[in-house]
Specification:
Chain lengths: 614, 527
């Protein structure tokens, strides 16, 4: 069975093809504003160069950072938002806290760019905290609102009403009315996207889906048409933020689930590499042109989360726990005023970049721009350093900043980075990897054979996302055996029959000590309908995380049942050891920088760098 | 700097980052395990690490208002319980404002951290507890005139021995708090956060060795001191004056904070002479207030590469008049000190804006509401909940001020309607940006907030502490002042009652409460 995986980023389309005893990779500039066209064009290039006609491809998988880039550039769809009367400003009030604690210019930590304030409308009708209707839904008000919406052109309409996760009736009635008048406009309901309390977070989830869905739907439609025109009749799948694959039908209804598919795919490859090299704990770092993405790998699996922030947007959904730092090869160094270097966003004005400094130091296989020295000198004057030493200082500052972010990321997850290996991916992950590792006390770095296309490689080893989530909202003991059994039966009925030759069942339960506390996920590899098993598992995992006993037996917010592929382990050969094993090692698949004190060896599917004294 | 020095500094930076990350991990643990809504939703707590000698080593990213209280509280505990006598499993607590705390609900928990039998550091947290007794539920009585009415005052005391909470400490809390389970649950969260710190610091000490670890903490502080000294030396000497004041209150004299900042030989000297004498109302603040204001102001002026530790504190000198609103003495009431600290912060930022005019915006709202609801559910169960409501940010120097945001020494989060209504018989009818409340200007000030509540049962006691009902922040460089704060009760029978900045009252079923916060000041002349 052969698979073609395509990962589109802001500058490049990365491809990885795996057939019987064959692994090929390709990197092509994006070259078009239209992602579908860019993907199809890169695929045509691959088809031509590899001599594999598109109709012969049985399985194509797509991942993308397009949605993240759209969010970073604040170029998303034009949407309207409908809220309960009195709550039109929920998004613009945020949670009231600011983004940077010590910036005297306060900036609200809320993604207000998702919807213009004048496109937010209120609708009468309300439920209470038990889901009981306390104000009637206004049919007349809704009709008037629909007329207002009809006078504007929206890409989608988001609806987030108070307590819809307890009673969705008003949201459903609104969708019915809107779809009658505007059948072509997608209507996104909050209880379907994020059925959890706290209105700000649910509003963000709903608006995010509304902003992304039209864009993703256009891309998917164009892609399917293009593939069809090329005679493709195989299976098309889309990578999601958990590092699994969705069918086009499901992907079309969960665009926000695709948001971090690119970084999640890279994390999936880092997990594969960690697993094959028997590395139980690893920190994956993928350094591209504009961002650095980091993920934690434990026991050969990426760690997941239900709450994160990406591109300034708080996200509440199951996803790979990826943190993104706005620092990449194009970042511009500047003096901080107290003897150090900070990085600023890339600007259109001619300026020095991290990539220029690496080129100046001959650590990447490109020629430094002619004006590099002109830009290095003023920076060097401020630091009292020569041009070479300034470039070194810039690289050291970048390594320091990534190390700092990685340290915060890992400590926050109760992981001591010095006990982990580093997985260096992306254009610069294996170039800056040694410097980052040294700062964190890490002595082993794993690098994929083609680090620059790690996302596409990650998609090759993905399995399908077969899972369902049920909102519960009850104490575990109060649910009892019959209640838990009912929940499991409901979930099993919603999933296809378990193919036990290929999959195992996995249950994760979102729990907190009391209904008011913040939940975390309790994983049960053996689903059980015994409430005592659940309560004991919760207490043990709570104590393990926090070092104290939980102040309650355990409230169940939601249960998720998944079919986990039994074994997706692909064997791959070791690459050839390069002739040189220090300094810059460049190939089509990416670049490694091996400084003094580090040894290079080959492992299955990549390389290992080890600190000589370790 | 030569290559060896660069590497040495880089290693030190990593170490400071690791300490910062440990403090942040404490904060995360606290929020994940806290049981009270004001911490879980409002984030009203802060954590820090201290060296083995008791100097500040690292801060969490939390509410600056609280961070400034930790050094004084730690010093007070160490003065009572010498560090060399401490053993593994010991824990200490205190809330005495006059010994280093803030106000009585803010309890500090201090835990010594040992590695191979040797004390290597301290983990400390301060958390706003739901009720520590006193004349009103929530322990923030707006009508208090002395500290004795505000609740239980814990001097530096032993909380635990051998890792177990002492029965007498638990009994003291159980007998005096209206919400003992919540208070003890939150103290358990503070202990959990210290446990996180201990495990993480022991890992670092295991890598470095005990003596190298302790030496490294000193190096971090020395580096922070050098960095801040360089920054202070780069600024014109001054002096720079700032003045701000609270709303006029009947039967109280005008209340103002005066500050004069000057930079001398790499030190920041802050002289608060001229500030008003303390008053018989709960708006006084203790020494931790001006320290929090100054620490926040300095950290916001410095680049993010600064080591945020006790090295910075070594270079800040405070001169505080005794028994004043900025340095109150026993028996002053202090529970509503937040707006006094905001007022001091406004004065400090005003002065700093003269030293670094290109970095500082116009004045923020300089206020937050603290609103506490308490009473009994129809089923007889008690409820107590507190929320914090921000104002607007000052405009400029490059753009409009942000609406509805926690500024300067505050950074509390708001209470979602879907969280509030589950824990109290209160309905949040609306939560809006208060349009037109920001000061006009080339870069207008951000707008404040308007929240409207409905009582669903009789006998809901409300304690409201706000500010800027009369005296509003001044605009900068021709910018205008914002609209003042306001609060109103709309009784079910149609009566309307305008409230003052500090009010205590009861709502019955059908009564409404409208709370409106002040905007930020404008920057530059509007076209």
């Amino acid at each position: 069975m052969s698979v073609l995986a395509i990962d589109i980023g802001s500058e490049f389309v990365d491809l990885a093809f795996e057939g019987k005893d064959t692994l090929r990779t390709l990197k092509r500039p994006v070259g078009s504003d239209d992602p579908a066209r860019a993907i199809l064009s890169a695929m045509d290039d691959f088809s031509l160069s590899a001599g594999i006609p598109v109709p012969n491809l049985p399985d194509i998988r797509i991942g993308s950072t397009g949605a993240i880039n759209a969010l970073l550039a604040k170029r998303t769809g034009r949407i309207a938002l409908l809220t309960t009367t009195g709550f039109a400003d929920t998004l613009y009030l945020g949670r009231q806290n600011r983004r940077e604690l010590y910036n005297p210019i306060a900036r609200l930590a809320s993604p207000t760019f998702l919807v213009d304030r004048h496109n937010i409308h209120e609708i009468a009708g309300r439920f209470d905290a038990e889901g009981k209707e306390i104000a009637l839904f206004s049919e007349n008000g809704a009709a008037e609102l629909v007329r207002t919406l009809s006078s504007e052109r929206y890409d989608a309409i988001a609806v987030c009403l108070l307590y819809s996760y307890l009673n969705p009736d008003h949201e459903l009635r609104l969708r019915g009315l809107i779809e009658q008048a505007l059948p072509e406009v997608p209507v996104i309901l909050s209880h379907e996207i994020d059925p959890n309390p706290r209105e700000f977070e649910r509003t963000v989830s709903t608006c995010l889906e509304a902003c992304l869905r039209p864009m993703e739907a256009r891309t998917m439609a164009a892609l399917q048409t293009g593939l069809s025109q090329r005679g493709f009749t195989g299976k098309l799948q889309f990578a999601d933020g958990t590092g699994r694959l969705l069918t086009p039908e499901v992907a079309r209804t969960r665009s926000s689930a695709l948001l971090i598919s690119g970084p999640a795919a890279a994390a999936r490859h880092a997990a594969w590499l960690s697993d094959t090299s028997e590395t139980p704990l690893a920190l994956a770092v993928d350094i591209g042109s504009t961002t650095t993405d980091m993920a934690l790998i434990q026991d050969g699996t990426p760690v997941f989360t239900r709450q994160s922030e990406f591109a300034g947007v708080p996200i509440r959904q199951a996803m790979t726990d990826v943190h993104s730092l706005e620092l990449g090869g194009l970042a511009c160094p500047a003096l901080d005023g107290i003897g150090g270097i900070v990085f600023e966003r890339p600007s259109d004005a001619p300026s020095l970049s991290l990539r220029d400094c690496l080129a100046w130091l001959e650590r990447i296989p490109v020629r430094a721009p002619p004006e590099t020295k002109i830009h290095l000198d003023p920076l060097g004057e401020g630091l009292n350093l020569s041009a070479d030493a300034t470039a070194e200082a810039v690289v050291a500052a970048a390594e320091q900043q990534v190390a700092s972010a990685l340290l915060k990321f890992s400590v926050k997850r109760n992981v001591d980075p010095s006990r982990a290996a580093l997985v260096g991916m992306g254009g610069l992950g294996a170039v800056l990897g040694a410097g980052i590792a040294e700062r964190l006390g890490i002595t082993k770095i794993l690098v994929p054979e083609a680090p620059a296309v790690a996302g596409a490689l990650g998609m090759l080893s993905m399995g399908p996302n077969i899972s369902k989530t049920l909102r519960v909202g009850a104490n575990a003991l109060a649910l009892g055996q019959s209640g838990l059994a009912d929940c499991l039966n409901t979930l099993r009925a919603a999933l296809p029959s378990l193919d036990s030759t290929r999959f195992t069942e996995s249950l994760s339960v979102e729990m907190a000590a009391t209904p008011f506390m913040h939940p975390f996920e309790v994983a049960l590899l053996q689903p059980s309908d015994d409430p005592q098993v659940l309560v004991s598992a919760f207490a043990a995992q709570y104590a393990d995380r926090f070092g104290i006993d939980p102040p309650g037996s355990g409230h169940v917010f939601a249960m998720s049942l998944a079919h986990v592929p039994a074994d997706l382990h692909t064997r791959r050969p070791k690459p050839t050891l390069p002739e040189t094993s220090s300094g810059m090692i460049a190939s089509e698949g990416g670049t490694l920088w091996i400084p003094e004190g580090w040894d290079l060896s080959v492992i299955e599917g990549g390389y290992a760098m080890t600190r000589a004294e370790a | 700097m030569n290559a060896d020095q660069t590497i040495a500094q880089s290693r030190l930076e990593i170490l400071q980052m690791r300490f910062d990350a440990v403090a942040q991990g404490m904060q995360e643990t606290l929020f994940r395990t806290a049981v009270s809504p004001v911490v879980r939703e409002g984030a009203d707590a802060s954590c820090a690490l201290f060296t083995a000698e008791g100097e500040l080593l690292a801060l969490s990213d939390a509410i600056p208002l609280l961070l400034g209280a930790l050094p004084g509280s730690v010093n007070a505990i160490l003065a009572r319980y010498p560090a060399e006598d401490m053993r593994e499993g010991d824990m200490f607590f205190m809330n005495d404002p006059f010994a280093g705390g803030t106000h009585l609900p803010d309890i500090t928990v201090l835990v010594p951290v040992f590695f191979k039998g040797e004390r290597i550091a301290f983990a400390a947290s301060i958390l706003h507890h739901q009720d520590v007794g006193g004349m009103r539920a929530g322990s923030v009585p707006p009508d208090a005139t002395d500290i004795y009415q505000e609740g239980l005052r814990f001097p530096p005391s032993r909380l635990a021995q051998g890792g177990r909470i002492l029965q007498e400490a638990e009994d003291l809390i159980r007998l005096n708090s209206r919400a003992p389970d919540t208070v003890l649950g939150d103290i358990a969260a503070q202990i959990a956060s210290a446990g996180h710190a201990a495990r993480s610091l022991q890992t670092i000490a295991g890598e470095l060795g005990t003596q190298a670890f302790i030496a490294a903490t000193h190096d971090c502080l020395n580096h922070g001191e050098n960095q801040i000294s360089r920054l202070f030396q780069s600024l014109p000497a001054g002096p720079y004056q700032g003045i701000d004041g609270l709303d006029p209150t009947p039967n109280l004299p005008p209340i103002e904070a005066h500050v004069s900042l000057s930079f001398e030989a790499g030190h920041l000297k802050a002289d608060f002479s001229g500030s008003s004498a303390q008053v018989n109302a709960p708006i006084n603040c203790v020494r931790s207030g001006p320290l929090s204001a100054l620490l926040y102001a300095v950290l916001s002026l410095a680049p993010p590469t600064l080591f945020r530790n006790g090295g910075v504190l070594r270079r800040i000198e405070l001169h505080l008049p005794e028994a004043s609103v900025v340095n109150a003495a026993v028996p002053a009431a202090v529970n509503a000190r937040m707006n006094m600290v905001r007022c001091i912060t406004s004065a400090v930022l005003q002065a700093l804006s003269k030293a670094a005019p290109d970095k500082m915006p116009a004045a923020n709202s300089g206020m937050s509401y603290v609103l506490a609801f308490s009473g009994t559910w129809p089923d007889g169960n008690r409820f107590v909940t507190t929320e914090i409501i921000a104002g607007g940010a000052g405009g400029g120097p490059f753009s409009k001020g942000a609406d509805a945001v926690s500024t300067d020494v505050g950074n509390a989060m708001n209470m979602p309607g879907e969280a509030l209504e589950e824990i109290a018989p209160i309905r949040l009818l609306s939560a809006r940006i208060r349009e037109g409340s920001g000061g006009p200007g080339k870069y207008p000030g951000g707008n404040g907030i308007r929240r409207e509540y409905l009582a669903l049962t009789d006998g809901v006691s409300v304690s409201l502490r706000g500010e800027r009902f009369a005296r509003v922040p001044q605009g900068l460089l021709g910018g205008g002042s914002p609209q003042p704060s306001a609060a109103t009760i709309l009784r079910a029978d149609g009566e309307t009652i305008a409230l003052t900045a500090r009010s205590a009252f009861t709502l019955n079923s059908g009564d409404r409460l409208i709370v409106e916060s002040c905007g930020g000041a404008g920057y530059g002349t509007a076209n």
